[in-house]
Design goal:
By secondary structure, the chain is mainly alpha-helical. The protein contains four helices and no strands.
Amino acid sequence: MFWRIPLLVLAYLLLAAHFMRFGAQLPMAVLALAPVLLFVRKRWAIQLLQAGLVIGVVAVWFPSTLEFINQRQSVGAPWLRLAAIMGGVMLFTLSAAWAIHPLWRDARPKS
């Protein structure tokens, strides 16, 4: 169970680093501090963290990947390795969102 938390933290730090690269300080700080919500230990906090990672893939990683590939193609540079790396980042982020799902499951008494 413990291995799920570092995945979540790393996924959020990757998103924060992406915003830091472009000088967006506020989104970077919000994303870097988002895993602090784990201390709330409520279902809504885990669901919010999951949604944040999924939105990060759809709204940040995927458009950035397309933009970076277009930049590479426009100058005739190789782009397949970039696409594979960014695909791995998106897959990692989605797997981190999926991995924290059991953290918010309701404890049910065993019968």
